[in-house]
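Recap quiz, item 2
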Amino acid sequence: MFDRFNNYINENEYKIIIKNNTVNIINYLEILDFNATCIKIKHQKGITNIIGKNLVVNKMLNDEILITGEIDTINLKGELWEIP
Amino acid sequence: MRNTLTDKFNSNVKILVEGKNINNFIKRIIKLKISIINLKYHSSKKAEIIIKYDDYLKLKKYKTIYSIKIIDKYGKLKLKEKIKKNYILFTSLLIGLIIIIFLTNFIFDIEIIHTNKQIVNLVSSELEKNGIKKYIFKKKYSELEKIEDKILKDNKDKLEWLEIEVVGTKYVVRIEERKIVEEKTNNNYQNIVMAKGGILKKIIAYSGEKVKEINTYVNANDIVISGNITKPNGEIIQTKASGLLYAEVWYTIEVEYPYHYKEELLTGKTKDVYYINFLNKRISLFDFKKFNSFSSKPKTIIKNTFLPISFIKEKQYELNVIDEIYTEEEVIDKAIQLAENKLLNNNNKIEEINSVSIITKENLNSKIKLKLFLSVTEEVSKIEIPQEEKSNLDN
């Protein structure tokens, strides 16, 4: 209950928002690797891999990152998520 | 992306980076933990990046490998640049504003509206005595009120009403002259007598003969300035005596005053304050100059039905609170002051209060009750038309 309330007030939960060829990641810890085809992002509970073509970090703040490009796959916590 | 209002004021720069591989440059930015506010790729060798100005200074080291050029500025930087560019305009605007504020708070003319020149001269000298002149700063409303009261008090026999109004950079003074309607009688013979019994202190005789001495007790209706004048040859002629008599007379007054005195007065200042009410805790927003005491009318703007949080707009009315607890000595002083003011307000013939003595003092629970004996100097002259003159007039 307290954790949920804390998350509501401080917004420190890890979030990925996917829109047309953009991925907005909130509350990440670190960018481990970055190139035009793969971006590895570390967060509190693991690592997220974004795989695609012409990947670009559009915006990058302390706790927020926006990636654009032709995104094929987002690998979250070891599970593979296919983008339709 | 979350954008806050403060982001708009941050000093950011848009840089154009050119080099062999832009991705390597971005990797470096990531390693240096520099925030990218926006990035626009032109090609793999060229990109536009918006970053903080402080971060740009860190990146300057890599200028040898990559070409980095500032192409735009945002926030404070942009503002500074604009001010620098237009500093003559801004400086003249600021100076103009200061001059306008200065001039609008200055008095250039005083207009006294009245037809009687004597009254105009009197008021103009009184105004000057009280610091109301041309080419000085405007006075506060409360100060003007005090000056109005003082002038009226000092000239109560000549002025009925006075108002100082501020019209732009001019004081407009409106006056109502006091017209004392003198009782016009056709009689040729009259005496001036005492209206009240008391010790005679001053006699101002314009005509007639003084028949009483100063510092003697004279009863009410006793003649002080007689219309009968005795010539050196013993002949008595009857005239119309006129003059003023001042005597020491006495009053007893009962007065009550509380030990605890509380008064709340609205100062006329109001303001709107917005605050967040969370768990009955108040978090004010932008309330920089807080009123010491105020009364308020709150209006809820947003209320969360699930959480004990609400956003409230409150209209605050500043109060001037006089809350004093007096000692016995202080309460006696206050009660005496109250009695004196009452007496002076009710009787405009009183010249001055000579002394006050306490006859009885009674301590009630929360207040004091005093019976006071006041010795005052009062104008006590009264015209008396003798009976034979009255019958002559009737005929």
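Chain A has one helix and seven strands.
Chain A touches chain B through 14 residues (CB under 8 Å).
End of item.
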